[in-house]
User: Fold this.
Amino acid sequence: MHGVKHDMVRRYFGTDGIRGRANGVITPELALRVGQAAGLIFRRGDHRNRVLIGKDTRLSGYMIETALVAGFTSVGMDVLLTGPIPTPAVGMLTRSMRADLGVMISASHNPFADNGIKLFGPDGFKLSDEVERELEGLIDSELTKKLAKSADLGRAKRIDGVQDRYIEFAKRTLPRNLSLEGLRVVIDCANGSGYRVAPEALRELDAEVIAIGVDPDGFNINRECGSTEPAALCQKVKEMRADIGIALDGDADRVIIVDERGRVIDGDQLLAVIAESWQGDGRLAANGIVATVMSNLGLERYLEKLGLALVRTPVGDRYVLDHMRRHDYNVGGEASGHIILSDYTTTGDGLLAALQVLAVVKRREEPVSKVCHRFDPLPQVLKNVRYKSGKPLENAQVRSAIELAQARLSAHGRLIIRPSGTEPVIRVMGEGEDKVLVEEIVDEIVDALTSAAL
Assistant:
């Protein structure tokens, strides 16, 4: 085993914890070993160490939860089980309950057959690459001798009331006197982990709430609902003549908004709304926000007009958060609706982002279509090129095609060419004022890549 350590630098952990098919990648054996390895790393000092475990509504959550409990208790850690709660709630409760570790069992916006394990340190933040590497080494090592003695085994118990704590916490992110009375809100909880807390929080803030995607059965998480499939929400908003639609994903860490006409508003517009509102209140840190290379150029130009910077990171909320923490930004996110408001949370939080937008709608007393249309996005063209092997981006023809394209776009747009993190695909994204030109440029690069990849 020890000789192959270097080949498996990221054997289990991807960009967001461990994720894969339940009983394919994510087996009870793996969950058991993750529990043991993580328990050993986070067992600090002589006090009773505690781990808090939350989950979404997938059928396989029961199996993985039970295996994790066996793993943690076998190395002497006590376990607190919350049942279904949002990912951001796990980060928050890990801190507030002084746990040594937090775990979320979820595969986010993936179909029900997948599941995943996300780990949070005692500070409520997802684990660093270094700690994940240490974990990988331990997962594959011989753990029997490291198990707890009979008298030192951990206990496990279910804890009640955590949903209420999260609802209270979410409400407190708004000014005390702010009421959402008079707003008719449709919320789609993706039959996922926000199905109880999100509608309840909105009701307690006096909104009129119509909730869909709140009947989880273990199989229907993200199925034709939630932020990745907002068609049902758009329909419901129009049918109920609602003021706004809110769609969360399976673990409630991202959000998409729908306006009163049933049109989808992406994360870029929401970032603009929040940044402008917070700038007006004097609470936007570092004079700007953090987003990824995929965020629209229209957002960047809009913020520029407000005197705010848009700092870009590689794709992935962990890179956004990392930059925010290192450079003291308090607003960041992705066009997909992952919005991180780090004054409150250690991860994206769909409900909190939605509440900030609702506060602006309420304050301005204008329809959502007006409030949430801060800028006209520039045309974006995205194409994927599959390749069998090698590194097509290093090919001389490809490189000269890219240089030529960049010169043609120059000040009028952006070109992003990046290999996918998960499959043998090169993503080519062009963006600019002239859609025809952008399409032409993207096609030229795709042609060069295709001939290089053959």
Summary: The longest strand covers residues 77-84. Residues 1-8 have pLDDT under 50 and may be disordered.
